[in-house]
Design goal:
Elements (H helix, E strand, L loop, with lengths): L1 H21 L1 H10 L6 H6 L15 H13 L15 E3 L11 E6 L7 E4 L5 E4 L3 E4 L5 H12 L8 E7 L4 E6 L5 E5 L4 E2 H8 L12 E5 L6 E5 L1 H6 L8 E2 L4 E4 L3 H30 L1
Parallel strand pairs: 1-8, 7-13
Antiparallel strand pairs: 2-3, 2-6, 4-5, 7-8, 9-12, 10-11, 10-13
Length: about 290
């Protein structure tokens, strides 16, 4: 019974693969799927604009939609990150200007009533104890420290103040596709290089990722911009000409290779047959 099941599975695989490879319509479909034409529907659904507003050279509809759908599906899966939930990690370092949602910790030596953690509100200000609203958006932590000191001089003779950012929530980038840990990544700096972001998200498998066709997409309500980059040269040959700085909101998409896509399609197709074969084999062992 087991041998019959194995032969059946092998025969089905060979038959389907031969049919796909030899059928002209399938070959044309593969060419269409991997010709990087504008993908209006995928981005319009995300609020990025209509077909005429998508930059020429954007990944096609199937590739972009599948990548985004796989990522958005994580919103319903326990323990995974989502667009609106927990970030996958924190990237970058260097100068950082505060934005809405960021959390700062203010410590005033010997003055616990003026110390604590404060969130930058929707109005761009901190609701600071006893002081009132303190503008914070667009400031570095050192600039905010000077503002806090100027306010505290009304209450404390010589205030000794320290300010630290404890929650990076206002800036993020998205790494999708063939990285080890796709998701939303908070930024601990105002920018981060493409290479650093990809390395922090987990290097893609060289056999499964088409790194030479990496896309960096800057979304916009009317005119999103997509740029094709040879990430393989950046990572493995040290050619840093295209190692651009990512800005908040940028999307990095590393597509799979054609062979990887074919393999995954076959896996999905044969999965029901495989499960049925396993059940049949187990049943045969039970009743034999």
């Amino acid at each position: 019974m087991r041998r019959i099941t194995q032969i059946t599975r092998l025969g089905l695989a060979v038959t389907l693969l031969s049919t796909l490879l030899l059928h002209p319509s399938w070959a044309q479909q593969q060419q269409d799927d991997w010709s990087y034409e504008p993908s209006p529907d995928a981005y319009q659904q995300q609020g990025y604009g209509s077909q005429n507003q998508i930059s020429q050279g954007t990944p096609n509809r199937q590739q972009t939609t599948e990548a985004i759908d796989r990522y958005l599906a994580a919103r319903e899966a326990p323990g995974l990150n989502s667009l609106s939930g927990t970030v996958a990690g924190i990237l970058g370092s260097g100068p950082y200007t505060l934005g809405i949602g960021d959390v700062v910790q203010i410590m005033v030596r010997g003055q616990p009533e003026f110390s604590g953690s404060f969130v930058v509100g929707p109005d761009g200000a901190l609701q600071y104890t006893f002081v009132g609203d303190v503008p914070a958006v667009g400031m570095t932590k050192n600039e905010l420290k000077e503002v806090v000191v100027s306010h505290l001089t009304r209450y404390v003779k010589v205030p000794s103040v320290s300010v630290a950012i404890v929650g990076y929530n206002s800036k993020s980038v998205y790494l999708l596709g063939e990285v080890a840990s796709p998701g939303k990544y908070a930024m601990a700096g105002d920018s981060i290089t493409l290479r650093e972001a990809v390395v922090r998200a987990g290097l893609p498998e060289r056999a499964s990722a088409a790194t030479h066709r990496t896309w960096v997409i800057t979304p916009d309500d009317t005119h999103p911009v997509a740029r094709k980059i040879d990430l393989q040269k950046i990572l493995y040959k040290g050619v840093l000409k295209e190692n651009i700085d990512l800005k908040p909101g940028d999307v990095v998409y590393i597509p799979p290779t054609v062979m990887t896509s074919v393999t995954r399609t076959l896996d999905e197709f044969f999965s029901p047959f495989y499960r049925a074969a396993v059940v049949t084999s187990v049943a045969g062992d039970v009743f034999d």
